[in-house]
């Protein structure tokens, strides 16, 4: 791979296409449940009152991230030992199995268990980020990471669209599906089946994944060590720095995790807020309406990454672009609760524009912090470093939906409070986390890797 990079001119399109497809397939099931999560909890009959649905929805949404948080360091270490490709292929296979089982859940504990196992066995994020960095020349690394984050963002946004359009098909498309069909018995199976089918195609295509990027030539290494041992007693290789003592890495991971907490809480709150009744401060949208909004946001994200992001990164760099996008997200979030007073086209226009801008700013932040992480460590530690980042990010994302669900449920019960009534309080908490993330992008909280100084 190193020799290929030296002789190759231009962008490694073939490798990055595979990176994008695998990232997209692995990200689809993460948020595909959000448009129908409210209705699924209601149908599982675990909530005693309508106001309690958000409470149980939060824990179900968190179960995936709890599983991923517990296993990500392990998968990062495995990727540094056996290579990037096997871990990525196994992760796609886990999507096929456990996402399908989630669609077959008829009990709350079954849904929790399958989502937890899906998160624990889907360890693609650490190796795929390392792979995308290692196939690129230094000047192309921003593109490599942006491909991962764009595909990830597209999956996270199109996933809810699939869930919104295909959940409860008997109710949404009665002329195509009947109550006695399997989709009448399992109303949330169809979106899961579609995602698993796409993941199956991606898993088969892993056989043609371009070459491994991790150096694994153990026989050659032993021969080199024998030759070097006969000529010198001292090693010229510097000792590896402990990842936990690598402050440029750890500070970037902390900032990345705060933004990840915010983004996950935002997706859950946005989905719950839009489908909840107007008497509770929501928009009374259907799951299809939510999916449509998020699909448009996903298209805008793709256009931005293809046409604008490289220039943004070239002009501002990863740090300043993160700061600017974080600051601009704050007024957008503050505007959401005021949209409940609108209807028709007067509601659609600002809602769609806000969702598109919020997605663009989120992917800019994630890409910038990911670049800082991956350039703070050498290649042989990159998988483990991304594993640590994925673990802390997953724990933050595990807390986010549970916390967001609890706060959302609590806020719906205080519609007439004098201090930030109803959903105003929810979006205030979202903005406070955004402000914390913005503060962490400045010195002395953020240490900059050498190449960005």
Automatic annotation (TrEMBL):
Its main location: membrane. It is a multi-pass membrane protein. Keywords: Membrane, Transmembrane, Transmembrane helix, Transport. It is found in: Membrane. Gene3D superfamilies: MFS general substrate transporter like domains. Coiled coil: none annotated. One of its GO terms (cellular component) is membrane. Pfam families: MFS_1. The chain crosses the membrane at residues 16-41, 53-75, 87-106, 112-131, 143-166, 186-209, 249-270, 290-309, 321-339, 351-372, 384-412, 424-446. Residues 15-449 form the Major facilitator superfamily (MFS) profile domain. The keyword Transcription regulation does not apply. It comes from the Eukaryota. The keyword Membrane applies. This is Major facilitator superfamily (MFS) profile domain-containing protein.
């Amino acid at each position: 791979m190193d020799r290929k990079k030296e002789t190759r001119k231009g962008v490694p399109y073939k490798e990055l296409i595979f990176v994008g497809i695998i990232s997209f397939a692995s990200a689809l099931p993460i948020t595909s449940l959000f448009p129908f999560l409210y209705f699924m909890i209601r149908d599982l009959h675990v909530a005693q009152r309508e106001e309690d649905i958000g409470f149980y929805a939060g824990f179900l949404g968190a179960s995936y991230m709890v599983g991923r948080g517990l296993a990500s360091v392990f998968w990062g270490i495995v990727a540094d030992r056996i290579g990037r490709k096997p871990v990525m292929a196994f992760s796609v296979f886990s999507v096929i199995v456990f996402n399908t089982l989630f669609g077959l859940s008829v009990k709350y504990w079954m849904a929790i268990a399958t989502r937890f196992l899906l998160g624990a066995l889907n360890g693609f994020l650490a190796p795929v980020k390392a792979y995308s960095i290692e196939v690129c020349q230094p000047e192309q690394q921003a593109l490599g990471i942006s491909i991962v984050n764009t595909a990830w963002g597209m999956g996270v946004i199109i996933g809810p669209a699939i869930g919104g359009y295909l959940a409860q098909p008997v109710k949404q498309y009665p002329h195509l599906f009947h109550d006695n069909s399997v989709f009448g018995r399992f109303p949330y199976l169809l979106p899961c089946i579609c995602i698993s089918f796409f993941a199956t195609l991606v898993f088969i295509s892993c056989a043609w994944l371009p070459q491994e990027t991790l150096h694994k030539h153990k026989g050659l290494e032993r021969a080199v060590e024998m030759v070097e041992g006969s000529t010198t007693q001292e090693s010229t290789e510097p000792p590896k720095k402990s990842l936990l003592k690598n402050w440029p890495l750890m500070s970037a991971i902390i900032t990345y995790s705060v933004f990840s907490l915010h983004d996950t809480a935002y997706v859950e709150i946005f989905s719950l807020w839009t489908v909840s009744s107007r008497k509770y401060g929501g928009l009374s949208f259907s799951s299809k309406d939510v999916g449509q909004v998020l699909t448009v946001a996903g298209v805008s994200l793709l256009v931005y990454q293809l046409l604008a992001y490289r220039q943004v990164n070239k002009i501002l760099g990863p740090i300043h672009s993160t700061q600017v996008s974080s600051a601009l997200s704050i007024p957008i979030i503050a505007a959401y609760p005021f949209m409940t007073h609108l209807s028709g086209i007067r509601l659609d226009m600002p809602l769609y524009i806000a969702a598109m801008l919020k997605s663009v700013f989120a992917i800019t932040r994630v890409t910038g912090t990911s670049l800082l992480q991956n350039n703070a460590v050498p290649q042989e530690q990159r998988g483990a470093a991304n594993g640590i980042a994925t673990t802390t990010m997953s724990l933050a994302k595990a807390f986010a939906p549970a916390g967001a669900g609890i706060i959302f449920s609590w806020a719906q019960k205080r519609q007439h409070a004098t201090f930030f009534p109803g959903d105003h309080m929810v979006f205030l908490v979202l903005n406070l986390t955004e402000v914390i993330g913005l503060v962490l992008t400045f010195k002395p909280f953020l240490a900059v890797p050498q190449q960005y100084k």
